[in-house]
Amino acid sequence: RGALKKVLANLAEGLVSREPEVRVLLLAALSREHLLLLGPPGTAKSVLGSRLASLCAGRFFSRLLTRFTTPEELFGPLSLAALENDEYLRKTEGYLPTSEVAFLDEVFKANSA
Q1: What is the 3-state secondary structure (H, E, C) of the chain?
Q2: Whose CA is closest to 104, among 41, 37, 52, 59?
Q3: pLDDT tens digits, one per residue of 1-39
Q4: Is 12 exposed, middle or buried (0-12, 13-18, 19+ CB in 10 A)?
Q5: How confident is the model at residue 81 (pLDDT cuts 50, 70, 90)?
């Protein structure tokens, strides 16, 4: 119990009135579930994501989505060498599929592709 309080304190350090968000973020992480945080700009959503990634020493992926965002920006580019061999292969290292913590900003402004 003491360790959880310490993690909660580390996540919330310097943030004003974000205790509920910090608690639900930690709950989602421990449950290995996704979390959707809605709020205006400047309410520490991205900060919480990056803090969680550093706390668990996980790879952090962050993108601002727009109507022009392509799947390659999220999942990685296609391997041209593999395509020459009739293989459909993405280079995913450093992209969403290989991250432990992801922050996708402006989800509702993204295109449906």
Answers
A1: CHHHHHHHHHHHCCCCCCHHHHHHHHHHHHHCCCCCCCCCCCCCHHHHHHHHHHHCCCCEEEEECCCCCCHHHHHCCECHHHHHCCCCCECCCCCHHHCCEEEEECHHHCCCC
A2: 37
A3: 888 899 999 999 999 889 999 999 999 999 999 999 998
A4: buried
A5: very high
